[in-house]
Amino acid sequence: MDANTFSNRVSSLTNDSCQFLKDIGAWNYVEQRRTCPIEEMQVWDGISGARINFSAADLPLQTTEMSRMTENLNLQRGLLKHLSRIPEVQLLDNVRVTAIEKEGEANGWPLVRLSNGQTFRTRLLVGADGPNSPVRTFAGITTHGWAYDTHAVVATLSHAPRTPFQPPNTTAYQRFLPTGPIAFLPLSPTESSMVWSTKTALVAALKSVDPSMLVTFINAVFRLPEVSIRYLHDLLLSSVASRKALTVDEVREEILWRERSHNISATSAYSSALSAGEVGIPPEDSEFLPPLITSIQPGTVASFPLRYSHADAYIGDGGRIVLVGDAAHTVHPLAGQGLNAGLADVQVLARTIETALLQGGDIGSRTALLPYTRARWFENHKILSAVDKLHKLYSTTFPPVVWARSVGLEVINELDTIKVALMITAGGGGGGPRADGSGWRWDVAAKGLENFNSTADTAKVVGSGLVNVVGIGLQRLGNALSQVGRR
Ligand SMILES: Cc1cc2nc3c(=O)[nH]c(=O)nc-3n(C[C@H](O)[C@H](O)[C@H](O)COP(=O)(O)OP(=O)(O)OC[C@H]3O[C@@H](n4cnc5c(N)ncnc54)[C@H](O)[C@@H]3O)c2cc1C
């Protein structure tokens, strides 16, 4: 792809993941010009507008970035180039695993049959084969979890560069709406990626409309009050259902009317009338919003069903099989943790295998693999359930909960340690899943939670009903965080 064209599948890699890739020598092969640092994050409540901003400066880091965006293709290409330079590695391309069988009776080694006719007898079979893992099925490993009634719509967005009066395009934005969060993730000064998780019916409608209509919707969804977004969604759904085409001009007219009725000034960054790419001094509120989208790169709109799923075990019954990445766990993308957790799995598994080899052990034996599952299963469980709780917390429109979580968010923005903890949960931190689960991140999170809970306690002591609701809101957030923070 040329320098200004980006694939729609991107990931935010935590500093730990980048460090791991550097340590193994693969990062050298990832094209750096096609990666982008995230230096700040703006996260806000779609109903109340309560906002929290994270900055790399809030973290005790050696670097100025919280994470780094890369296209999955760029990373995959880098990894493949790295592997191709290791003589002991044999890569088989364009081949499918067609069947996995057990050799002989109980505790036989897995036989992996390939579409090119080859069969491998495997001392250790690593299932890195994604959410529908055939390896997991073969091993009879069950999973628990559920499908969210949402899909993630992704697209590569084009916009004007930031003006000289604004910070560079290195801020990620995420707005939590009751239908799901929408995220804007920078890739270059003029291109960014979108991950918009929303209800299944709306996904189909959004994918069926003209790109200029989708652009209008995306700009509105970052800007308009929630009540108007709901109205626009209904308008779109009924136009699709009645097959009465809605024109972009009609939608823009509707948005302008709504902006006037919400008292949105035409000179505010929240106004759709503001022309994209003006070079003068930007509106004061421009830092709160991503730039206005001008177009969508052709062919980049796609959607993915979202699931929470966790394998009940990572090792097959008699050993010989181990799961990593999405084969072991899938998580809502709102916190950008899936791939990072998978890389942390790989890091620990590699170390576990190395230890077994050094001790002259059998790398496929259950005993040799147990340290891997001990280090990773509970660690992943904490991340998965924290992210799931955040998703549920923000899906409700019940006013006391909205109020409580909003006050919670405002309070958090003032409390630096808690901010760091939430930043980790939200995936923007220098933290994210760390292979061995150790280090300052979880300590900081735990400390933040202590303060967080004492804020909730103070609220409770004050005692009025509403203040109690704040306390509950804080505690609920605290509980979500504690899944990550308590060690
Ligand atoms: C919209 C969205 C945004 C995301 N953003 C982020 C983010 O910002 N940060 C982050 O950390 N994570 C993110 N994730 C999650 C991340 O994409 C996944 O966690 C990650 O891709 C999982 O990698 P994996 O290698 O385990 O599985 P997969 O990517 O599913 O790869 C599995 C591989 O196995 C192969 N395979 C399967 N069956 C067979 C077979 N029979 N024979 C041969 N090969 C087979 C497949 O072809 C595939 O190549 C996001 C996910 C989504 C949906």
Binned, the helix content reads 40-55%
Helix and strand pattern = EHEEEEHEEEEHEEEEHHHHEEEEHHHHHH
| Unreliable stretches | 426-433, 435-476, 480-487
What would you report as the Rg, rounded to the nearest angstrom? Answer: 24 Å
Task: Look at the helices and sheets and give the structural class.
Answer: alpha+beta
Strand content: 15-25%
Chemical compounds bound to the protein:
flavin-adenine dinucleotide
Describe the biggest sheet?
9 strands, mixed
Question: What name goes with the CATH superfamily of the domain at 143-311?
Answer: D-Amino Acid Oxidase, subunit A, domain 2
Oligomer: single chain
Strand tally is 17
CATH class of the domain at 143-311: Alpha Beta
Number of DSSP helices?
13
Our measurement of the CA-to-CA distance between the termini, rounded to an integer number of angstroms, reads 44 Å
Q: Could you say what the CATH topology of the domain at 143-311 is called?
A: D-Amino Acid Oxidase, Chain A, domain 2
CATH architecture title of the domain at 143-311: 2-Layer Sandwich
| Average of per-residue pLDDT values | 84
Keywords: Ubiquinone
Organism: Thelephora ganbajun
Protein name: Ubiquinone biosynthesis hydrox
